[in-house]
Amino acid sequence: MTRHRVLAIVAYKPSARDPEGETLADELRRLGYTWVQGIRAGKAFIVEVEAESREEAERLVEEMARETRLFNPAVHTLLVITLA
Amino acid sequence: MPRVAVLRFPGTNCDQETAYMLREVAGVEARVVWHTEYRWRDWDATVVPGGFSYGDYGRAGLLASWSPAARQLREAAENGAPILGICNGFQVLVEAGVLPGALLPNEGGRFVARWLRVRVHSPRGPWLLHVEPGAVLDMPVAHAEGRFYHPAPGELLRSRPWLEYLENPNGSVADVAGLASEDGAVLGLMPHPERAASPLQVPRGRRPGGHPFFTSIGEALRRGW
Protein backbone atom coordinates (compact mmCIF):
# COMPACT_ATOMS: atom_id res chain seq x y z
CA MET A 1 0.00 0.00 0.00
CA THR A 2 1.30 3.44 -0.88
CA ARG A 3 0.10 6.91 -0.24
CA HIS A 4 -1.28 8.84 -3.23
CA ARG A 5 -2.44 12.43 -3.59
CA VAL A 6 -5.54 12.57 -5.70
CA LEU A 7 -6.89 15.84 -7.06
CA ALA A 8 -10.68 15.99 -7.46
CA ILE A 9 -12.14 18.99 -9.28
CA VAL A 10 -15.86 19.75 -9.19
CA ALA A 11 -17.00 22.30 -11.81
CA TYR A 12 -20.30 23.27 -13.43
CA LYS A 13 -21.61 21.64 -16.58
CA PRO A 14 -22.02 23.96 -19.58
CA SER A 15 -25.82 23.76 -19.06
CA ALA A 16 -25.57 25.59 -15.71
CA ARG A 17 -24.46 29.21 -15.77
CA ASP A 18 -21.31 29.96 -13.79
CA PRO A 19 -21.18 33.66 -12.82
CA GLU A 20 -17.75 33.40 -11.19
CA GLY A 21 -16.12 31.84 -14.25
CA GLU A 22 -17.95 34.13 -16.67
CA THR A 23 -16.93 37.28 -14.75
CA LEU A 24 -13.30 36.17 -14.55
CA ALA A 25 -13.23 35.45 -18.30
CA ASP A 26 -14.85 38.81 -19.19
CA GLU A 27 -12.46 40.77 -16.98
CA LEU A 28 -9.38 38.91 -18.26
CA ARG A 29 -10.41 39.66 -21.86
CA ARG A 30 -10.82 43.30 -20.85
CA LEU A 31 -7.24 43.29 -19.53
CA GLY A 32 -6.04 42.16 -22.96
CA TYR A 33 -6.00 38.39 -22.57
CA THR A 34 -8.22 38.18 -25.62
CA TRP A 35 -7.32 34.53 -26.21
CA VAL A 36 -9.37 33.53 -23.11
CA GLN A 37 -12.33 31.71 -24.64
CA GLY A 38 -14.04 30.87 -21.36
CA ILE A 39 -13.53 29.89 -17.73
CA ARG A 40 -15.42 27.46 -15.57
CA ALA A 41 -14.87 28.04 -11.85
CA GLY A 42 -14.96 25.07 -9.56
CA LYS A 43 -13.78 23.58 -6.33
CA ALA A 44 -10.66 21.47 -5.88
CA PHE A 45 -10.01 18.86 -3.22
CA ILE A 46 -6.68 17.10 -2.72
CA VAL A 47 -7.40 13.74 -1.13
CA GLU A 48 -4.62 11.74 0.55
CA VAL A 49 -5.33 8.12 -0.28
CA GLU A 50 -3.88 4.82 0.85
CA ALA A 51 -4.17 2.43 -2.10
CA GLU A 52 -2.33 -0.26 -4.10
CA SER A 53 -1.95 1.83 -7.24
CA ARG A 54 -2.70 5.19 -8.83
CA GLU A 55 -5.65 3.68 -10.71
CA GLU A 56 -7.03 2.22 -7.49
CA ALA A 57 -6.63 5.58 -5.70
CA GLU A 58 -8.50 7.40 -8.46
CA ARG A 59 -11.25 4.80 -8.47
CA LEU A 60 -11.72 5.12 -4.69
CA VAL A 61 -11.98 8.90 -4.84
CA GLU A 62 -14.39 8.81 -7.79
CA GLU A 63 -16.60 6.25 -6.04
CA MET A 64 -16.61 8.28 -2.81
CA ALA A 65 -17.52 11.45 -4.73
CA ARG A 66 -20.45 9.67 -6.40
CA GLU A 67 -21.75 7.99 -3.25
CA THR A 68 -21.62 11.12 -1.08
CA ARG A 69 -22.70 13.53 -3.85
CA LEU A 70 -19.50 15.49 -3.34
CA PHE A 71 -20.53 16.52 -6.84
CA ASN A 72 -24.08 16.57 -8.16
CA PRO A 73 -24.08 14.79 -11.54
CA ALA A 74 -27.10 16.87 -12.64
CA VAL A 75 -25.08 20.10 -12.60
CA HIS A 76 -21.42 19.30 -12.01
CA THR A 77 -18.58 17.61 -13.81
CA LEU A 78 -15.97 15.68 -11.83
CA LEU A 79 -12.32 15.44 -12.84
CA VAL A 80 -10.05 13.08 -10.87
CA ILE A 81 -6.27 13.16 -11.40
CA THR A 82 -3.51 11.56 -9.33
CA LEU A 83 -0.73 13.99 -8.50
CA ALA A 84 2.84 12.76 -8.74
CA MET B 1 -51.13 19.45 21.23
CA PRO B 2 -49.28 18.60 17.97
CA ARG B 3 -45.50 18.39 18.33
CA VAL B 4 -43.13 19.81 15.73
CA ALA B 5 -39.36 19.29 15.58
CA VAL B 6 -37.09 22.14 14.48
CA LEU B 7 -33.95 20.41 13.30
CA ARG B 8 -30.60 21.89 14.28
CA PHE B 9 -27.24 21.18 12.63
CA PRO B 10 -23.95 22.83 13.57
CA GLY B 11 -24.30 26.24 11.90
CA THR B 12 -28.11 26.40 11.88
CA ASN B 13 -29.14 29.86 13.10
CA CYS B 14 -32.87 30.35 12.40
CA ASP B 15 -34.06 27.60 14.77
CA GLN B 16 -35.26 29.76 17.66
CA GLU B 17 -37.40 32.20 15.67
CA THR B 18 -38.84 29.30 13.68
CA ALA B 19 -39.79 27.48 16.89
CA TYR B 20 -41.20 30.74 18.27
CA MET B 21 -43.52 31.22 15.28
CA LEU B 22 -44.61 27.57 15.46
CA ARG B 23 -45.64 28.19 19.07
CA GLU B 24 -47.13 31.67 18.68
CA VAL B 25 -48.75 31.48 15.23
CA ALA B 26 -49.26 27.76 14.58
CA GLY B 27 -50.17 27.07 18.21
CA VAL B 28 -48.20 23.82 18.36
CA GLU B 29 -45.52 22.51 20.69
CA ALA B 30 -42.14 23.15 19.05
CA ARG B 31 -38.75 21.89 20.14
CA VAL B 32 -35.29 22.45 18.71
CA VAL B 33 -33.78 19.00 18.10
CA TRP B 34 -30.07 18.30 17.58
CA HIS B 35 -29.56 16.44 14.30
CA THR B 36 -28.03 13.30 15.80
CA GLU B 37 -30.99 12.93 18.17
CA TYR B 38 -33.72 13.40 15.58
CA ARG B 39 -36.14 10.49 15.01
CA TRP B 40 -38.94 11.46 12.64
CA ARG B 41 -41.49 9.13 14.26
CA ASP B 42 -41.31 11.14 17.52
CA TRP B 43 -42.87 14.20 15.82
CA ASP B 44 -46.03 15.19 13.95
CA ALA B 45 -44.07 17.43 11.58
CA THR B 46 -40.49 18.65 11.04
CA VAL B 47 -39.06 22.02 10.03
CA VAL B 48 -35.49 22.27 8.73
CA PRO B 49 -34.71 25.95 9.42
CA GLY B 50 -32.29 28.39 7.85
CA GLY B 51 -28.66 29.11 8.62
CA PHE B 52 -25.32 27.82 7.41
CA SER B 53 -25.18 24.14 8.32
CA TYR B 54 -21.53 23.06 8.49
CA GLY B 55 -20.53 26.53 7.29
CA ASP B 56 -21.85 25.72 3.78
CA TYR B 57 -18.58 23.80 3.29
CA GLY B 58 -18.44 21.87 0.02
CA ARG B 59 -21.87 23.20 -1.00
CA ALA B 60 -24.75 24.55 1.06
CA GLY B 61 -26.49 21.56 2.64
CA LEU B 62 -23.96 18.96 1.46
CA LEU B 63 -22.49 17.96 4.81
CA ALA B 64 -25.88 18.02 6.54
CA SER B 65 -26.99 15.47 3.91
CA TRP B 66 -24.33 13.13 5.35
CA SER B 67 -25.87 13.36 8.85
CA PRO B 68 -28.03 10.47 10.16
CA ALA B 69 -30.85 13.05 10.15
CA ALA B 70 -30.85 12.97 6.33
CA ARG B 71 -31.87 9.31 6.33
CA GLN B 72 -34.59 10.14 8.87
CA LEU B 73 -35.85 12.94 6.62
CA ARG B 74 -35.96 10.63 3.57
CA GLU B 75 -37.89 8.06 5.58
CA ALA B 76 -40.27 10.71 6.94
CA ALA B 77 -40.94 11.96 3.40
CA GLU B 78 -41.59 8.42 2.13
CA ASN B 79 -44.15 8.03 4.92
CA GLY B 80 -45.94 11.28 4.10
CA ALA B 81 -44.86 13.18 7.23
CA PRO B 82 -45.06 16.99 6.82
CA ILE B 83 -41.60 18.56 6.31
CA LEU B 84 -40.82 22.22 5.68
CA GLY B 85 -37.32 23.28 4.58
CA ILE B 86 -36.59 27.01 4.80
CA CYS B 87 -33.56 28.48 2.99
CA ASN B 88 -30.63 26.34 4.18
CA GLY B 89 -33.29 23.78 5.15
CA PHE B 90 -34.43 23.73 1.49
CA GLN B 91 -30.80 23.25 0.45
CA VAL B 92 -30.51 20.36 2.91
CA LEU B 93 -33.68 18.70 1.56
CA VAL B 94 -32.40 19.01 -2.02
CA GLU B 95 -28.92 17.69 -1.15
CA ALA B 96 -30.48 14.82 0.81
CA GLY B 97 -32.56 13.89 -2.24
CA VAL B 98 -35.90 14.59 -0.50
CA LEU B 99 -36.74 17.27 -3.10
CA PRO B 100 -35.47 17.32 -6.72
CA GLY B 101 -33.09 19.73 -8.44
CA ALA B 102 -30.08 21.69 -7.19
CA LEU B 103 -29.42 25.08 -5.59
CA LEU B 104 -26.47 26.89 -7.15
CA PRO B 105 -24.66 30.15 -6.28
CA ASN B 106 -26.74 33.22 -7.17
CA GLU B 107 -26.36 34.34 -10.77
CA GLY B 108 -25.43 37.85 -9.61
CA GLY B 109 -22.48 36.38 -7.73
CA ARG B 110 -23.54 38.02 -4.47
CA PHE B 111 -25.47 37.32 -1.30
CA VAL B 112 -29.01 38.74 -1.67
CA ALA B 113 -30.99 39.95 1.34
CA ARG B 114 -34.25 41.71 0.46
CA TRP B 115 -38.03 41.55 0.60
CA LEU B 116 -39.82 40.31 -2.50
CA ARG B 117 -43.06 38.69 -3.65
CA VAL B 118 -43.81 35.11 -4.62
CA ARG B 119 -46.88 33.68 -6.35
CA VAL B 120 -48.19 30.34 -5.09
CA HIS B 121 -49.14 27.76 -7.72
CA SER B 122 -51.34 24.69 -7.06
CA PRO B 123 -51.34 25.04 -3.25
CA ARG B 124 -52.18 21.85 -1.38
CA GLY B 125 -50.89 19.94 1.61
CA PRO B 126 -50.43 20.90 5.26
CA TRP B 127 -48.18 23.95 4.72
CA LEU B 128 -50.43 25.72 2.18
CA LEU B 129 -53.89 24.95 3.57
CA HIS B 130 -54.70 28.65 4.01
CA VAL B 131 -53.24 29.83 0.70
CA GLU B 132 -55.44 30.46 -2.36
CA PRO B 133 -54.19 29.44 -5.83
CA GLY B 134 -52.33 32.39 -7.36
CA ALA B 135 -51.96 34.18 -4.02
CA VAL B 136 -49.06 36.64 -3.85
CA LEU B 137 -47.05 36.60 -0.59
CA ASP B 138 -44.44 39.07 0.72
CA MET B 139 -41.37 37.51 2.34
CA PRO B 140 -37.66 38.28 2.70
CA VAL B 141 -34.85 36.22 1.14
CA ALA B 142 -31.27 36.05 2.46
CA HIS B 143 -28.98 33.65 0.64
CA ALA B 144 -25.91 33.20 -1.53
CA GLU B 145 -26.82 29.83 -3.04
CA GLY B 146 -30.48 30.09 -3.98
CA ARG B 147 -30.46 29.64 -7.76
CA PHE B 148 -32.74 26.67 -8.30
CA TYR B 149 -31.76 24.48 -11.20
CA HIS B 150 -33.44 21.52 -12.84
CA PRO B 151 -32.89 20.26 -16.40
CA ALA B 152 -36.65 19.98 -17.14
CA PRO B 153 -38.53 22.54 -15.00
CA GLY B 154 -41.74 22.49 -17.08
CA GLU B 155 -42.29 18.81 -16.48
CA LEU B 156 -41.14 19.06 -12.86
CA LEU B 157 -43.62 21.82 -11.92
CA ARG B 158 -46.65 20.54 -13.83
CA SER B 159 -48.10 18.42 -11.04
CA ARG B 160 -46.87 19.89 -7.77
CA PRO B 161 -47.29 23.01 -5.62
CA TRP B 162 -44.56 25.57 -6.24
CA LEU B 163 -43.67 29.19 -5.54
CA GLU B 164 -42.70 31.66 -8.27
CA TYR B 165 -40.59 34.79 -7.73
CA LEU B 166 -42.28 37.88 -9.13
CA GLU B 167 -38.84 39.51 -9.02
CA ASN B 168 -36.22 36.79 -9.46
CA PRO B 169 -33.24 37.68 -7.21
CA ASN B 170 -30.83 34.85 -8.10
CA GLY B 171 -31.39 33.53 -11.63
CA SER B 172 -33.49 30.50 -10.63
CA VAL B 173 -34.76 28.49 -13.59
CA ALA B 174 -38.48 29.22 -14.24
CA ASP B 175 -38.34 31.77 -11.36
CA VAL B 176 -38.64 28.93 -8.84
CA ALA B 177 -38.57 30.20 -5.23
CA GLY B 178 -39.71 26.91 -3.74
CA LEU B 179 -41.43 23.64 -4.54
CA ALA B 180 -43.22 20.78 -2.85
CA SER B 181 -43.72 17.07 -3.23
CA GLU B 182 -46.75 16.08 -5.36
CA ASP B 183 -49.08 15.94 -2.32
CA GLY B 184 -47.56 19.03 -0.70
CA ALA B 185 -46.43 17.20 2.45
CA VAL B 186 -42.80 18.21 1.84
CA LEU B 187 -42.21 21.86 0.98
CA GLY B 188 -38.90 23.65 0.48
CA LEU B 189 -38.45 27.37 -0.19
CA MET B 190 -35.68 29.96 -0.20
CA PRO B 191 -37.74 32.87 1.30
CA HIS B 192 -38.09 33.01 5.09
CA PRO B 193 -41.72 32.66 6.27
CA GLU B 194 -40.57 32.82 9.92
CA ARG B 195 -39.31 36.36 9.27
CA ALA B 196 -42.69 37.43 7.87
CA ALA B 197 -45.14 35.70 10.22
CA SER B 198 -46.06 38.66 12.43
CA PRO B 199 -46.99 42.26 11.48
CA LEU B 200 -44.22 43.42 13.83
CA GLN B 201 -41.57 41.92 11.50
CA VAL B 202 -42.86 43.52 8.34
CA PRO B 203 -41.64 46.81 6.80
CA ARG B 204 -44.08 49.48 5.61
CA GLY B 205 -45.89 48.55 2.41
CA ARG B 206 -45.48 44.80 2.93
CA ARG B 207 -47.76 42.14 4.35
CA PRO B 208 -46.76 39.19 6.55
CA GLY B 209 -46.64 36.56 3.78
CA GLY B 210 -45.15 33.94 6.07
CA HIS B 211 -48.18 33.93 8.36
CA PRO B 212 -50.34 31.41 6.41
CA PHE B 213 -47.58 28.74 6.42
CA PHE B 214 -47.79 28.64 10.22
CA THR B 215 -51.59 28.87 10.56
CA SER B 216 -51.84 26.14 7.88
CA ILE B 217 -49.61 23.62 9.64
CA GLY B 218 -51.32 24.33 12.98
CA GLU B 219 -54.74 23.59 11.58
CA ALA B 220 -53.57 20.65 9.46
CA LEU B 221 -52.02 18.93 12.47
CA ARG B 222 -54.99 19.62 14.75
CA ARG B 223 -57.29 18.12 12.12
CA GLY B 224 -55.09 15.03 12.14
CA TRP B 225 -53.12 15.35 8.92
UniProtKB/TrEMBL annotation, chain A:
<protein>
    <recommendedName>
        <fullName>Phosphoribosylformylglycinamidine synthase subunit PurS</fullName>
        <ecNumber>6.3.5.3</ecNumber>
    </recommendedName>
</protein>
<keyword id="KW-0067">ATP-binding</keyword>
<comment type="function">
    <text>Part of the phosphoribosylformylglycinamidine synthase complex involved in the purines biosynthetic pathway. Catalyzes the ATP-dependent conversion of formylglycinamide ribonucleotide (FGAR) and glutamine to yield formylglycinamidine ribonucleotide (FGAM) and glutamate. The FGAM synthase complex is composed of three subunits. PurQ produces an ammonia molecule by converting glutamine to glutamate. PurL transfers the ammonia molecule to FGAR to form FGAM in an ATP-dependent manner.</text>
</comment>
<keyword id="KW-0963">Cytoplasm</keyword>
<keyword id="KW-0547">Nucleotide-binding</keyword>
<dbReference type="InterPro" id="IPR036604">
    <property type="entry name" value="PurS-like_sf"/>
</dbReference>
<dbReference type="InterPro" id="IPR003850">
    <property type="entry name" value="PurS"/>
</dbReference>
<keyword id="KW-0436">Ligase</keyword>
<dbReference type="Pfam" id="PF02700">
    <property type="entry name" value="PurS"/>
</dbReference>
<comment type="similarity">
    <text>Belongs to the PurS family.</text>
</comment>
<keyword id="KW-0658">Purine biosynthesis</keyword>
<comment type="pathway">
    <text>Purine metabolism; IMP biosynthesis via de novo pathway; 5-amino-1-(5-phospho-D-ribosyl)imidazole from N(2)-formyl-N(1)-(5-phospho-D-ribosyl)glycinamide: step 1/2.</text>
</comment>
<comment type="subunit">
    <text>Part of the FGAM synthase complex composed of 1 PurL, 1 PurQ and 2 PurS subunits.</text>
</comment>
Automatic annotation (TrEMBL), chain B:
<dbReference type="InterPro" id="IPR010075">
    <property type="entry name" value="PRibForGlyAmidine_synth_PurQ"/>
</dbReference>
<comment type="subunit">
    <text>Part of the FGAM synthase complex composed of 1 PurL, 1 PurQ and 2 PurS subunits.</text>
</comment>
<comment type="function">
    <text>Part of the phosphoribosylformylglycinamidine synthase complex involved in the purines biosynthetic pathway. Catalyzes the ATP-dependent conversion of formylglycinamide ribonucleotide (FGAR) and glutamine to yield formylglycinamidine ribonucleotide (FGAM) and glutamate. The FGAM synthase complex is composed of three subunits. PurQ produces an ammonia molecule by converting glutamine to glutamate. PurL transfers the ammonia molecule to FGAR to form FGAM in an ATP-dependent manner.</text>
</comment>
<feature type="active site">
    <location>
        <position position="192"/>
    </location>
</feature>
<keyword id="KW-0378">Hydrolase</keyword>
<feature type="active site">
    <location>
        <position position="194"/>
    </location>
</feature>
<dbReference type="InterPro" id="IPR029062">
    <property type="entry name" value="Class_I_gatase-like"/>
</dbReference>
<keyword id="KW-0547">Nucleotide-binding</keyword>
<keyword id="KW-0067">ATP-binding</keyword>
<keyword id="KW-0963">Cytoplasm</keyword>
<dbReference type="Pfam" id="PF13507">
    <property type="entry name" value="GATase_5"/>
</dbReference>
<keyword id="KW-0315">Glutamine amidotransferase</keyword>
<comment type="pathway">
    <text>Purine metabolism; IMP biosynthesis via de novo pathway; 5-amino-1-(5-phospho-D-ribosyl)imidazole from N(2)-formyl-N(1)-(5-phospho-D-ribosyl)glycinamide: step 1/2.</text>
</comment>
<feature type="active site" description="Nucleophile">
    <location>
        <position position="87"/>
    </location>
</feature>
<keyword id="KW-0658">Purine biosynthesis</keyword>
<protein>
    <recommendedName>
        <fullName>Phosphoribosylformylglycinamidine synthase subunit PurQ</fullName>
        <ecNumber>6.3.5.3</ecNumber>
        <ecNumber>3.5.1.2</ecNumber>
    </recommendedName>
</protein>
<keyword id="KW-0436">Ligase</keyword>
